């Protein structure tokens, strides 16, 4: 079986999850489709660069995990760690076999 778009290696899924969470938190402030579009645009344009970089730098770790699991898709969650002392983010991945 050839998986062309394995979710384990697609960091955009983490971004979508983050946007979805933030939209759910703001649900009471969104009354119209235009409000929704504006909020999505705002969230997208204000994603922290270091968050996206952390996801990018986590790719080798995900590749190793998929290879270690003989190419099988693995379920993982990225946990975003905020480092207040340095105002940076890092990503820790938690894996489980599916």
Q: Mind sketching the topology for me?
A:
Blueprint: H1 12-25, H2 33-45, H3 49-57, H4 59-68, E1 74-83, E2 88-97
Antiparallel strand pairs: 1-2
Task: Summarize the structure in words.
The structure is a single chain. The chain is an alpha+beta fold and 98 residues long. The longest helix has 14 residues. The mean pLDDT is 75. It contains four helices and two strands, in the order ααααββ. It has a two-stranded antiparallel sheet with strand order 1-2. The chain has one domain.
Structural class: alpha+beta
Arrangement of strands in the largest sheet: 1-2
What level of helicity do the residues show?
40-55%
> Which residues sit in consecutive blocks of at least 5 with pLDDT less than 50?
none
Task: Looking at this protein, list some descriptive labels.
alpha+beta; two-stranded antiparallel ribbon; 4 helices; 2 strands; 20% strand
Short characterization:
The chain is of the alpha+beta class and about 100 residues long. The chain has helices spanning about 10-25, 35-45, 50-55, 60-70, and strands at about 75-85, 90-95.
């Amino acid at each position: 079986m050839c998986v062309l778009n394995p979710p384990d290696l697609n960091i955009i899924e983490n971004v979508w999850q983050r946007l979805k969470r933030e939209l759910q938190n703001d649900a009471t402030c969104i009354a119209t489709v235009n409000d929704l579009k504006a909020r999505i645009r705002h969230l997208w344009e204000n994603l922290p660069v270091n968050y996206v970089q952390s996801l990018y730098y986590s790719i080798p770790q995900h590749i190793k995990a998929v290879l270690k699991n003989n190419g099988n898709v693995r379920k993982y969650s990225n946990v975003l760690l905020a480092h207040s002392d340095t105002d940076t983010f890092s990503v820790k991945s938690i894996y489980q076999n599916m």
